Amino acid sequence: MSKPRFALAVLAFGYAFLYLPIVLVMGYSFNESKLVTVWSGFSFKWWRALLENEDMLAAAWLSLQIALTSATLAALLGLAAGYVLARVPSFFGRTLFGSLVIAPMVMPEVVMGISMLLLFVGANQLIDGPPFGFLTIAIAHTTFSLAFVAIVVQARLADFDRSLEEAAMDLGATPWVTFLTVTLPLIAPAIGSGWLLAFTLSLDDLIMTQFVAGAQSQTLPMLVYSKVRLGVDPQINVLATIVVCVAATALIISGRLTRRR
Prior knowledge:
Blueprint: H1 3-28, H2 45-51, H3 54-87, H4 94-106, H5 109-127, H6 134-158, H7 162-170, H8 175-203, H9 207-212, H10 220-228, H11 234-259
Helix pairs in contact: 1-11, 2-11, 3-6, 3-8, 4-6, 6-8, 7-8, 8-11
């Protein structure tokens, strides 16, 4: 076998190993049988059952609200952090600040979850902090995902044409007006890409959410995990199909926005 054919075969095996299980899960979401590994015919039975499952719908709505909130906050904070890292070459504590921004990307989620749990427990004891639930989950997800937004924004500003800003200021625009009318529109695709990444990360986070969610708050990944431990319900295949489609769409849009100039 020639080298190109061998490389193609290895590539095909790698893609099949990674994505064939996902394709099978999506295919079995249209299975008539209750057994998730036995095909008995094409049907939308479990799709209709999922739409009537109030627990699933409530968990999905909560996850969607948290993802929208945390992604928006992460986009705002990540924009500020990325702008500082890209435009302010030196200031006291810059190395520490950069390390703190990047830390959530490399730190294990278990460590992040424990640290956020201790933070909220201490806040409740000292200043009557927020109760565990929607707000604590949104704060934890924002802390985790703003690093991705900051990195994307910093990378976009690294190859930014500064002459456009200089021309605007030469024409009398203040730094704030220049940022709003020149800089922000040009880096908007990077911000949108970071927002989509943060939204996707929040939507499927499980480990850190388990540490900071209250007894009355159950996100979609938490509900799915609790059900899978007792056996795979065919509705899980349907839910997985929807999540994969949403995540894939977000990543495709994110990639296109990143390449946009």
